[in-house]
């Protein structure tokens, strides 16, 4: 049954209520949920792309004003403000924006996209606030990662308070950035390549695995329910991306990697392929369609990557791109069949 998003939400809430009151069992409840298929109207599509445009323009405008023109620094020097005062001013601005966002959520609960896009201003002002507070404390470059981690924590707290996925996404991105920056600062070798014997792709892969594990452990927590699906799939994408780079580079520095033949890293490629097969089997068995689709995409990327690694100089380029065209045509044909089946 295809219904609009509002009707879909109402039906799912009713099914959940019936399940909680033991009027239907879990199996029946899941079957009923599977029969409800929400569709996006033309106005939903326009609102979605308009929200993306608004967020993009806000980031570009903020970046142009703060990074290029450096108007904050000009104001600070002209009025002889301290860096702490600038940080405090942006912290107060963030507090005001959080209050406005909270009020908007209560007054306009139906305007979810507009409310979500508004929170990008909170992310930007909070980031500037932490940056200037860090400058005022004269934090050295060895602790930039910790400052970014504090920003990630603040994003996460505000995301839970405002019930917004956009800020939660910013929190996850800040967490990844903090891990990369801090492990770089803690690297002891000459070229800042290794941390605890791991190069960048390997330690990012471990972080991705940790994020997947944490998402799985928190899946049953009520407060994490809204963010579970997004965090779960985001973590898998990050893990697959990091592991793909690892399958190409191995746990080697750039100097060593560029001096050896790619065939010597074949075991890393096999390990990555095995990982994809295991996750694909898990997704199919547990009927996780989104994870299944993500894994298939990375499986294709894995095949193309292996081709560029081992066969680029030995295969006719026209033949390769012909095979590439056929594969993408088959994908589009399958997607079209699924679309017609669901419509």
UniProtKB/TrEMBL annotation:
Keywords: Membrane, Transmembrane, Transmembrane helix. It comes from Niabella digestorum. The chain crosses the membrane at residues 46-67, 79-101, 113-132, 144-162, 167-186, 198-218, 230-253, 265-284, 291-308, 314-331. This is DUF2157 domain-containing protein.
């Amino acid at each position: 049954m295809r219904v609009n998003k509002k009707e879909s939400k109402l039906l799912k809430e009713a099914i959940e209520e019936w399940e909680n009151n033991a009027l239907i069992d879990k199996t029946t409840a899941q079957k009923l949920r599977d029969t409800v298929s929400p569709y996006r109207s033309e106005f939903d599509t326009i609102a979605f792309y308009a929200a993306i445009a608004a967020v993009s323009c806000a980031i570009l405008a903020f970046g142009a004003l703060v990074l290029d023109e450096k108007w904050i620094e000009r104001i600070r020097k002209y009025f002889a403000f301290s860096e702490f005062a600038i940080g405090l001013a942006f912290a107060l601005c963030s507090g005001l924006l959080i209050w406005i966002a909270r009020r908007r959520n209560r007054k306009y609960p139906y305007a979810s996209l507009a409310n979500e896009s508004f929170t990008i201003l909170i992310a930007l002002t909070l980031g500037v606030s932490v940056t200037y507070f860090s400058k005022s404390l004269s934090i050295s470059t060895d602790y930039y990662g910790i400052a970014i981690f504090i920003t990630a924590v603040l994003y996460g707290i505000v995301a839970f308070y405002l019930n917004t996925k956009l800020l939660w996404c910013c929190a996850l991105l800040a967490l990844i950035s903090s891990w990369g920056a801090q492990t770089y600062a803690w690297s002891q070798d000459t070229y800042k390549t290794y941390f605890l014997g791991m190069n960048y792709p390997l330690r990012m892969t471990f972080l991705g695995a940790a994020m997947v594990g944490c998402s799985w452990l928190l899946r049953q927590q009520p407060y994490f329910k809204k963010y579970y699906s997004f965090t779960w799939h985001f973590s898998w994408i990050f893990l697959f991306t990091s592991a793909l780079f690892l399958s190409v580079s191995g746990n080697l520095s750039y100097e060593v990697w560029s001096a050896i033949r790619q065939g010597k890293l074949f075991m890393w490629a096999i390990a990555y392929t095995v990982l994809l097969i295991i996750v694909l089997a898990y997704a199919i068995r547990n009927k996780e369609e989104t994870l299944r689709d993500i894994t298939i995409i990375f499986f294709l990327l894995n095949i193309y990557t292996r081709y560029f690694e081992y066969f680029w100089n030995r295969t006719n380029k026209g033949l390769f791109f012909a095979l590439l065209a056929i594969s993408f045509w088959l994908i589009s044909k399958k997607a079209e069949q699924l679309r017609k089946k669901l419509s």
